[in-house]
């Protein structure tokens, strides 16, 4: 495949900054952000990957350039990122291996694709959940899901549990002043997670990595500040809202105790 032979050439076009205005080295299909590198590490070798919400297409193109996957679909709902992904694939001569499709969510996946892994990264957890929910018909149940929500992890984990997905791996990482979570799941029959496990992540609660603990120390300070702002607010905050934050503070205090 001629695209593989040209792995080391320099990128031709000017590259757009990665999500959230990440600073530092120029990020592109050769130099992924640490966030996307960690996502890449969870894509099984030889996978047929559907990267939904691919934007510039850096993840599937980087993986293909490394010979780590055999085929990919880059799905985009918006025209500008769709065109950006087309350009990245074209610049790397990978049109024969990566299909770029303008489609809403999992509708980018066609029956003949034989997709074995799906990545949904850099979107809110609720958005990822909604894409999975409305795209259920496109899932065979055999795919590994590699999810990198920007917030909204709890509702996403709830969807996974309610749809028979077991969480196989989780990680927290910090890059450019943001905490990112990665959740890897496969459909493996019924599994029950407690409310706290859905909130913190069942595996992260056990592993208690330094990045995870620092994230929750930071969250605790934010939520305590919110509670004290509620207390001093001119207009009464609905009791339900106060109780919800107070419960989260209790859970985080128990976690960190
Ligand atoms: C912030 S970018 C993340 C890009 C890349 N996945 C990453 O993590 O660096 C989110 C992308 O998801 C796309 N997107 C949002 N909702 C989508 C949907 N329902 N279907 C396909 N793409 C979607 C947006 O157009 C945008 O390009």
Automatic annotation (TrEMBL):
Single biological process term from Gene Ontology: methylation
Coiled-coil positions: none
Keywords: Methyltransferase, Transferase
MF GO annotations: tRNA (adenine(22)-N1)-methyltransferase activity
Basic residues: compositionally biased ranges: 1-12
Region (Disordered): 1-25
Keyword Secreted part of the UniProt annotation: no
Keyword Acetylation among record annotations: no
Top-rank taxon, per record: Bacteria
Annotated protein name in UniProt: tRNA (Adenine-N(1))-methyltransferase
């Amino acid at each position: 495949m001629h695209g593989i032979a040209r792995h080391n050439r320099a990128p031709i076009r000017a590259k757009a900054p990665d999500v959230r205005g990440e600073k530092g080295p120029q990020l592109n299909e050769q130099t992924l952000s640490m966030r996307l590198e960690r996502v890449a590490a969870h894509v099984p070798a030889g996978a047929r990957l559907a990267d939904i919400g691919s934007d510039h297409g850096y993840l599937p193109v980087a993986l293909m350039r490394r010979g780590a996957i055999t085929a990919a679909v880059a799905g985009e709902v918006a025209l500008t990122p769709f065109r950006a992904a087309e350009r990245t694939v074209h610049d790397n001569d990978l049109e024969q291996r990566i299909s770029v499709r303008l489609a809403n969510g999992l509708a980018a996946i066609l029956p003949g694709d034989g997709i074995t892994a799906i990545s949904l990264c850099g979107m809110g957890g609720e958005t990822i959940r909604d894409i999975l929910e409305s795209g259920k018909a496109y899932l065979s149940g055999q795919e590994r899901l590699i999810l990198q929500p920007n917030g909204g992890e709890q509702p996403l984990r709830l969807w996974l549990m309610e749809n028979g997905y077991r969480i196989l791996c989780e990680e927290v990482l910090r890059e450019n002043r943001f905490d990112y979570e990665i959740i890897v799941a496969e459909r493996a029959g019924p599994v029950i997670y407690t409310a706290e496990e859905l909130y913190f992540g069942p595996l992260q609660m056990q592993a208690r990595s330094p990045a995870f603990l620092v994230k929750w120390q930071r969250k605790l300070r934010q939520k305590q500040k919110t509670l004290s702002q509620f207390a001093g607010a001119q207009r009464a905050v609905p009791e339900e809202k106060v109780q919800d934050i107070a419960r989260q503070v209790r859970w985080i205090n128990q976690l960190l105790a």
